[in-house]
Amino acid sequence: MTRRITWTLLVLTSVLLVLAVVPLAVSMTVGERVAFRDSQRAATRAVAAAAEEHLSDRKPATAMHQELAAAARSGDCAAVYDASGRLVASTPCTAAQGQEAQELVEEVVSGHEPELLENEGRLLTAEPAGEIRGPSGVVVLARSAAPLNARIATLWGWSAAIGAVGLAASVMLSLRLARWVSRPLSRLDVSAQRLGEGALDERAEVGGGPPEVRRLAATFNTMAARLETLVHGHRAVLADVSHQLRTPLAALRLRLDVMAAGAEGDISAELASAQEEIVRLSRLVDGLLAVARAEQATPRPVAVRVDEAVAERVAAWSPVAEERGVRLIASEGTALSVALGAGHLEQVLDNLIANAVEAVAEGGSVTLDHRAAGGLARLRVRDDGPGMSAGAKAVAFRRFGNPEARGTGLGLAIVHRLITANGGTARLEDTPGGGLTVVLELPLWPQG
To answer: What is the CATH number of the domain that holds 55?
Structure first.
C-alpha cells in the first residue's frame, strides 16, 4: 500500500508540475525572445534615425558615427547602406555585412518588412533610414544571441530546479502520508494473523492513522474481546462436560464389572449387554468432545512431513489391520512438508485409517499415497470396501451425518474440521473398482 500511494501521488504531482512549469517556462522563453528582439530593433532604429539626418538631410555624419560607436561598445555590429545598397559606414566588426545583410537591404529598399535572420550565432535586423516607401538608406544591426540563449538556459534551469524540488517534496509528503495510512493497517494485519493463530489476547493499537483506521482497530479489538470470551466459555463447557460425563460413566462401568463378576445366566448376559452400551456411550462422549475441540481449533501452523507422518501411522495401525486380515499399504511419495497444527495430521490419519480398516472386509486393502499438485499436497486414503452411496457422501462430514456408519459417525466430522481449520479441503470419491477414497488437499509449507 505504501508503494501504491507513493507512486500515485508521485505521478499526479509530476503531471501537475509538467502542466504548470512547462507552459510557464515556454511563456517566459517567448517573452525573453520578444524583449530581445524589441531591444535590438530599438537599437537599430536609433542608428537609422542618425543615418537619416546624414543621408537625406545632408547633415554631418557625426551623430551617425556616434550611434555606431555606441552600438560597437554594446557589442553590436552595425552597417549603414544608402538607397542603392552601397556601404556608407559601419562598426569595426563586419557581422552586419555579407550576403544576408544585402538581402535584408534589398527587402527594405523594396518597401517590405524584413524578417529577423540568424547568422553564425548572431541575429540580424534591418530598419529603413527615412520613409518606409522611399528610404534614403538602410541600417543593418547584428547582435550576438549568446546572452539570449544564456538567459533562456538559466530560465529553464530554474524551472527544472523548481520542478525537482517540488517533486522531492511530493515524494517526502507522499511517503509520510502512505506510512501514516499503511502502518496502522500493517499492525492491524499482524494482530489479525496472531488472533487467527490462536493468540486470543491479541489487541490492535488504536492510537495512529486516519480516523477510519482507528475505528477499524477499535472494532477489531471489540470483536477479539468477544471472541476470547466466547472461546474461553466453550473451553470451560468442554472441561466441565468431560469431567461431569466421564466420571459417572467410569463409576457405572466399574459397578457393572463388579456385578458381572458374580452373575450367572440371563443376568450375566444382560450385564454384558449393559457394559457394551456403556463402552459405546463412552466412545460417543469422547467423539463429541473430539469434534468440539476440532471445531475450536485455532492452530499455529508448523512444518509437518507428510511422508514421515504416513509411514508412522501405517506402522502403528499395521498390527490392527493384520489382525483383521486387511493389507495396509503406504505408497512411496516425494518428501513434502505441509503447514498444519501440531499433531493434526496424525489425528486425521488415525480417524481415516480406523474407518477404512473397519469398513474393509477380510482380504481387502487400504492404500495411502501423497504427491504435490498445483501448489498443494494431495493425500489420498483409498480402500476397496463397500464404499458410500451418493447421499451418504453428501452428509458424511456432518456429525452423525452418515446413517451407514458402523461406529459413532464422528470420525469424518473430526477430519473435516481439522483440515478446514488449517486452510485445506477434504472430499470423498469412489475408488475405481469399488470402495471409498478420501482426498485431502493441504497447504504446502513455504520454502525458505
So the answer is: 3.30.450
Cβ atoms of 79 and 140 within 8 Å: the answer is yes
Under the phi-then-psi rule, with left for phi > 0, alpha for psi from -120 to 50, and beta for the rest, what region is 248?
alpha
- Its domain, for residue 50, covers 2-150
C-alpha cell of residue 95: 557581422
Q: Is residue 23 helix, strand or coil?
A: helix
Same domain, 145 and 243: no
- pLDDT for position 404: 54
Amino acid at residue number 211: P
Nearest in space to 90 (alpha carbons), one of 68, 57, 116: 68
Q: Which of 85, 67, 64, 63 is nearest to 76 (CA)?
A: 67
Task: Kindly report the backbone phi and psi dihedral angles of residue 139, in degrees, each rounded to the nearest multiple of 5, phi listed first.
Answer: -115, 125
In whole angstroms, give the CA distance from residue 373 to residue 332: 16
CA distance 35 to 41: 10
> Are 44 and 100 within one domain?
yes
Domain stop point among 270, 295, 320: 295
Domain with residue 310: its CATH number is: 3.30.565.10
Evaluate whether 253 touches 275 at the Cβ level (below 8 Å). yes
Residue 322 is assigned to a structural domain of this protein: yes
Q: Is residue 190 part of a domain?
A: no
C-alpha cell at 357: 480398516
Is the pLDDT reported for residue 401 higher than 60? no
Positive or negative torsion for Cα 14, 16, 21, 26:
positive
Q: Annotate 197-231 with b (16+ C-beta within 10 A) or e (fewer).
A: eeebebbbebeebeeebbebbeebbeebeeebeee
Encode pLDDT of 403-413 as tens digits. Answer: 555 555 667 87
Same domain, 366 and 236: no
Contact 125/41 with Cβ under 8 angstroms? yes
Q: What CA–CA distance (Å, rounded) separates 228 from 298?
A: 12
Same domain? 369 vs 253:
no
Domain boundary residue, one of 295, 325, 353: 295
- Provide the number of structural domains found in the chain: 3
Residues 236-269: tens digit of each pLDDT: 676 666 666 767 777 777 777 777 777 777 777 7
User: Domain check: are 312 and 432 in the same one?
Assistant: yes
Contacts by 123-126, CB closer than 8 A, 24 or more apart: 123/36, 123/37, 123/40, 123/148, 124/95, 124/96, 124/100, 125/37, 125/40, 125/41, 125/44, 126/44, 126/101
